[in-house]
Write a structure and sequence with these properties.
- By secondary structure, the chain is an alpha+beta fold.
- The protein has a single domain, classed as Porin (Beta Barrel), CATH 2.40.160.
- It is about 15% helix and about 55% strand.
- It has one helix and ten strands.
- The strands form two sheets. It has an eight-stranded antiparallel barrel with strand order 1-2-3-4-5-6-7-8. Strands 9-10 form a two-stranded antiparallel ribbon.
- The radius of gyration is 18 Å and the shape is elongated.
- The N terminus and C terminus are likely disordered.
Length: about 200
């Protein structure tokens, strides 16, 4: 493994650790903040387009956590989204993790949202002819959005679409994996000084 690959691997690991730290710190902030703040976990099944070297469409799994930070108005909320995506194709398997701001608008039981995430990803090549080049790493930016439909006090149906930007080396062109996902989110309990809240 070359020096550049070691650096990429360390960068990927650092991103995961930093994401975990952000998650823990935000969770602590949510626990002691206002009653409006809450957290929700989600799991989605995705139809993915790897977009690398004409790879065919693939199945994927997306999972993550939303942590509300504060309300900008009675309907608009800013939150932190932490998510991971794992897509498997015949030519390449792509795994990424990232975090970033999520802006949502709540109207009755409908909540559309948009987000922009920063993170890192790993591509594992299934058809590589070079035994010394079986995987590579990339910084990943992801942007997209979706809509939440509240079905009960705790459960929400979610439809989501994301586009990512990858590049393995500075000499290679960018490529843009995409995921279209459906699934559910579950609203977790948080606690303020006055007792448990959603």
């Amino acid at each position: 493994m070359g020096i550049s690959k070691v650096v990429d691997l360390r960068s990927f690991a650092a991103c995961i650790l930093f994401t975990s730290g952000m998650l823990i710190a935000s969770a602590q902030a949510v626990q002691t903040a206002s009653q409006r703040m809450h957290a929700e976990s989600y799991a989605l099944v995705s139809y993915a387009r790897p977009a690398y070297d004409d790879s065919p469409a693939a199945g994927a799994v997306t999972a993550g956590l939303n942590l509300d930070l504060f309300a900008l108005s009675s309907s608009v909320e800013l939150s932190l989204d932490v998510r991971g995506v794992a897509a498997r194709s015949t030519q390449i398997n792509e795994a990424s993790a990232g975090f970033g701001p999520r802006l949502s608008y709540r109207r009755f039981w409908v909540q559309p949202y948009a987000e922009y995430l920063f993170g890192a990803g790993r591509g594992t090549f299934n058809t590589s002819a070079n035994p010394d080049y079986q995987r590579d790493y990339s910084a990943v930016r992801s942007y997209g959005g979706g809509i939440d439909l509240r079905t009960s006090r705790y459960v929400t149906f979610r439809a989501d679409a994301q586009t990512q930007r990858w590049r393995f080396t500075h000499l290679a062109p960018y490529f843009h994996p995409q995921q279209v996902s459906v699934g559910v989110s579950y609203h977790l309990h948080t606690h303020s000084h006055t007792g448990p809240q959603l």
